[in-house]
Design a protein that fits this description.
about 100 residues; alpha+beta; Alpha-Beta Plaits; 4-stranded antiparallel β-sheet; two-stranded antiparallel ribbon
């Protein structure tokens, strides 16, 4: 199994909306991918309530059957449609992918 974790730090305001509203929209759009990506076992999105300078704002935690399933997710049209929305609203992105036996 592959675990895919992404964290974003968001702009204070983007697309005419404040950070928290954009975080909620990102969560909604990402969670809508559940059940649409073959090989995706789990996808959850959290909005961080910690407000320190060291904290990111949104986290995606997901699990995939295989590396091939993760690769297919990366180019899936539903996922590609969400990426520009997030990119416009973020200042930083961090990602970790790892395998669990």
């Amino acid at each position: 199994m592959i675990k895919h974790i992404v964290m974003w730090r968001l702009k204070d305001e983007a697309a005419g909306k404040p950070k928290l509203e954009n975080a909620r929209l990102i969560k909604e759009k990402l969670e809508a991918l559940n059940g649409k990506i073959p090989g995706m076992l789990l996808l959850e999105v959290g909005i961080n309530f910690e407000t320190s300078d060291e904290a990111d704002d949104v986290i995606l935690y997901s699990e995939f059957e295989s590396l091939e399933a993760l690769d297919a997710y990366q180019i899936h049209p539903e996922h590609l449609a969400v990426k520009p929305f997030i990119k416009e609203r973020r200042t930083q992105r961090r990602v970790v992918d790892y395998e669990v036996n």
